Amino acid sequence: MRLTRRTSGFLIGFGVWSWIIWPTFLKNIWADDRSWRHGPTGFFTVHLLLTAVSLALGTAIGWLGVLGWRAAKASAARQVAGHS
Q1: How far apart are CA 22 and CA 62, in angstroms?
Q2: pTM for this one?
């Protein structure tokens, strides 16, 4: 399967967005009174896991975008050179 540059750019943007949003979200959860009662609460633990999974998926999706972008760039260069 080939990704267009537009699709690849969207995936890269999604990955970057994930790394902007989720650490901020976790910082806000960390400061929430419901997060700590003589240690981390279930509320905090669930949101920590949600953040970790979201960052992992955002990273993977962003990486697919980078790979797609590189492949589209290489394909365009081959076409310019007269190869398919």
Answers
A1: 14
A2: 0.84
Average pLDDT over residues 50-64: 98
Structural domain boundaries of the chain? 5-76
Q: How far is CA 7 from the centre of its chain?
A: 14
The residue type found at 14 is F
Instruction: State residue 84's pLDDT score.
Output: 56
Total length of the chain? 84
Q: Is the pLDDT of residue 80 over 80?
A: no
